[in-house]
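[step 3/7] fold_predict: job queued, chain A
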Amino acid sequence: MIAAAAIPSGRVILTEAPLFKYPFTNVPPSVLDRLVTDAVSNLSNEKKAAFLGLHCAQSKQTSAVSPAVGICVTNAFGLGGNGRESGIFEVASRFNHSCLPNAHHVWKAGRGVMEVTATRDIPEGTEITMSYLSLSEFFVPHKPRQAVLEDRYGFRCDCAACAGPEVRARDKRRVQISRMDDEVGGGVLIIMNPARAMKFCRQIIKLLPLECLDAELPRVYFDAFQLAIAHGDQARASAFMKIQRRVRREFEGDDASDMTPEMNALVEQPQSHYVFQAVSKRWQSTVSMRREEGSAGFDQWLWMRAEA
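[step 4/7] structure written:
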């Protein structure tokens, strides 16, 4: 997939309904084979040809699944976070992988479509790529990452994160991001050393774009929000949440799964979150003390709780 024109970050590149959906878990192979075979037989001749033209990474000699199921295993997307359904797409299933992707995909359950959005500016003539890896797989060094991709999809990744002069530096950076993310997510650091946890949030936010994981920024800003409000800092919690809303909207639109009235209200009413002062009141402040993004000294103010 090549950009025919320059694509700015945040632009929706593709909106597409699946050719068909099928259950993802707890389905015996024989039942799955029948479901997929029936779904393919119900496609128009044109759509059927498009489906059969998708790559199948399953070896014909060793695979116990039918070619149709093999195509699904190779090309399906999980639909939403519940892991119950997968979908096959005529166009979206044809995007190639990169460990330095410039686009990401989101299932819009309310509209029944997949959206592919640019996560950074894509120059004209550049290939549009997505990551085939889970977040935990994305953060491992390049050799285990290549092994996963080769085993699952039948190719050896040679993107700039897997081959080239910066491989070792990127491996080190990804391990560092993963370690800090685990520390913050574990919860103990938020209680025992919140300043260090805030420092880690700041560092992760700086490092994620270097590994083309801009779409993960909202999650980290929400971590910073929870960290601030757990210690009573309503002003910074409000600022973190306001940035989180902006970035989430940029990458996933106004109908993102967490764009709910309750979540949006946390910008002006961060104290309504259930962890408000759950740990301490050591950083106590009010929403009226919030500074606005872009104002003089905002970045220094926002992260003043972070350990130097």
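[step 5/7] annotate
Residues 167-186 form the longest helix (20 residues).
The chain has a mean pLDDT of 92.
exit 0
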